[in-house]
């Protein structure tokens, strides 16, 4: 190989290597995934306690970030406990038959500063929907924090669509995420 070819190959390899996002791991202790829904005249909030995920992030090019988070639907906890049992039961999340909820971040579009528009796929009860929502992504050294919220129509996922519950519970479910991560 000629010297010019070797130099071109080295430059290309360095650029490709530098552009490759690195694996990051989520800090579950410092993160949370919550949901809220209006029902019976008030807002009911729940938190998912069991989830795992992986992310790829290049702090110099955060718009290339990708992440996958898998949530155990049966880990939802709401107050009072009777609401939890109803929420994870057959008429709603049906955790026994559909044990996981999947979130897959596809892209981040820069909006300025630390603000981005996230595009993702959410799968609940085997039904997948695309979502777009604003997030704040801050990277400082070996720590990254992403916060944001999106709204889903529960009926798109076959949640609470039959019986009296359909009229008593709001269709919009707001999902809030605050995820912290560090390099793997």
What do these coordinates show?
- This protein is of the alpha+beta class.
- The protein is built from 3 helices and 11 strands; from the N terminus they run αββββββαββββαβ.
- It has an 8-stranded antiparallel β-barrel.
- The radius of gyration is 20 Å and the shape is elongated.
- The relative contact order is 0.18.
Count the DSSP helices: 3
Strand content: over 45%
Q: Report the uncertain regions.
A: 3-18
Major β-sheet annotation: 8 strands, antiparallel, barrel
Short key terms for the protein model shown above:
single chain; 184 residues; alpha+beta
Element layout with pairings:
Layout: H1 3-19, E1 22-26, E2 32-39, E3 42-48, E4 51-57, E5 66-72, E6 76-78, H2 81-88, E7 100-112, E8 115-124, E9 127-140, E10 143-153, H3 165-168, E11 169-183
Antiparallel strand pairs: 1-4, 1-11, 2-3, 2-11, 3-6, 4-5, 5-7, 7-8, 8-9, 9-10, 10-11
């Amino acid at each position: 190989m000629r010297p010019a070819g070797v130099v071109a190959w080295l430059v290309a390899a360095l650029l490709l290597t530098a552009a490759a996002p690195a694996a990051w791991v989520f800090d579950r202790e410092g993160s949370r995934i919550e949901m809220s829904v209006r029902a019976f005249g008030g807002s009911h909030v729940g938190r998912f306690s069991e989830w795992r995920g992986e992310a790829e992030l290049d702090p110099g090019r955060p718009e290339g970030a990708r992440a996958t988070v898998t949530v155990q639907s049966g880990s939802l906890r709401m107050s009072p406990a009777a609401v939890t049992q109803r929420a994870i039961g057959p008429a709603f999340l049906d955790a026994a038959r559909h044990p996981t909820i999947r979130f897959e971040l596809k892209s981040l579009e820069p909006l300025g500063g630390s603000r981005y528009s996230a595009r993702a796929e959410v799968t609940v009860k085997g039904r997948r929907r695309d979502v777009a929502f604003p997030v704040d992504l801050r990277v400082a050294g070996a720590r990254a924090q992403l916060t944001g919220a999106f709204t889903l129509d529960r009926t798109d996922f076959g949640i609470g669509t039959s019986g009296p519950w359909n009229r008593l519970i709001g269709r919009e479910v707001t999902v809030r995420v605050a995820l912290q991560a560090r390099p793997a």
